[in-house]
Structures are given as C-alpha cells and as structure tokens.
C-alpha cells in the first residue's frame, strides 16, 4: 500500500513539474501580448495626441500611465514566474526524497540554486526586466522630450 501511494505521489509530482514548466511559457505569452498592446497604445497616443487635440501634458501623463500599467503587468508576470520556480524547486526536492527512498540514495540529483544560469526562467525574467527598462528609457529619451 505504501509503495502504491508513493508511486501515485511521484506521478503527481511529475505532473506538477510539467505544469509549472508550461506555466512559465504561458505567463511569458501573456506578458508579451499585453506589453505589445500597451506599447502600441503609448505609441498611438504619442503619434496622435496633436491630431486628437490632447494637451501635451495630458498626453505625457497618458504615456506615463500606460508605462506604469505595463510595469505592473511585468512585475506581476515576473512574480508568477519566480513563484513557479520556487514551486518547481519544492516539487523536485520531493521527487528526490521519493526516489531516494524507493529506488536508491542519490538516484536523482537534487536541484541546486547555483544552476540558475541554466534555468530558462532566469532568462524569461531577465527579458521582462530588460524590456521594461528599454520601454522607460526609450520613452524618456525619444517620447517625453518631444511632447511639449
């Protein structure tokens, strides 16, 4: 009975690890979609504010608001990915505990935080951070100075 329970738990853990891996890509897709839409809205506001009769100060405020919203989306996405990574670490440790007990000690190597450069989540979060820095920098250098 204990062996069957451990086997079912092991299957569940593997399923959860797979789900956590897939979620990172889903979160990235959501971020990319929302960031692109928000950047497009900011660009449309920048290009059309004079034609639409919007005061420059209000247009700057609108672009700033859109960038703040994009930053909130980026922060939320990064947090979800980091939480998923922490869940993945927990599931992997539990997987190692089960295989240590049922198969052999050290059968499955435990995850190490030192391998952070090999985890795709690292680069997804880095992409999100760099893209937000780029959006704010480009707005500060090219958009805000022109909106007088």
General description of the model:
The model has no long low-confidence stretch (mean pLDDT 94). The longest helix is centred in the first third of the chain and has 47 residues. The chain is an all-alpha fold. It is elongated. Helices cover 80% and strands 0% of the residues. It has one domain. It is built from 3 helices and no strands.
> What is the count of β-strands?
0
Q: Main sheet, how many strands, which sense, barrel?
A: none
Helix content range of the residues, please? over 70%
Cα gyration radius (Å): 22 Å
Which percent range describes the beta-strand content? under 5%
Enumerate how many helices there are, as a single number.
3
Walk me through the topology.
Blueprint: H1 2-48, H2 56-102, H3 120-143
Short recap of the structure:
By secondary structure, the chain is mainly alpha-helical. It has helices at 2-48, 56-102, 120-143.
Search tags:
single chain; 148 residues; mainly alpha; 3 helices; 80% helix; elongated
């Amino acid at each position: 009975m204990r062996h069957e329970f451990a086997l079912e738990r092991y299957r569940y853990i593997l399923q959860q690890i797979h789900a956590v891996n897939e979620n990172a890509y889903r979160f990235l897709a959501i971020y990319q979609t929302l960031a692109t839409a928000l950047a497009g809205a900011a660009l449309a506001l920048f290009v059309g504010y004079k034609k639409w009769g919007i005061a420059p100060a209000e247009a700057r405020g609108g672009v700033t608001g859109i960038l703040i919203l994009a930053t909130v989306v980026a922060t939320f996405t990064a947090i979800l990915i980091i939480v998923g990574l922490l869940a993945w670490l927990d599931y992997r440790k539990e997987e190692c505990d089960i295989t240590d007990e049922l198969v052999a000690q050290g059968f499955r190597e435990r995850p190490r935080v030192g391998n952070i450069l090999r985890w795709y989540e690292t680069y997804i979060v880095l992409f999100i951070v760099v893209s937000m820095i780029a959006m704010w920098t480009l707005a500060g250098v090219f958009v805000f100075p022109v909106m007088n």
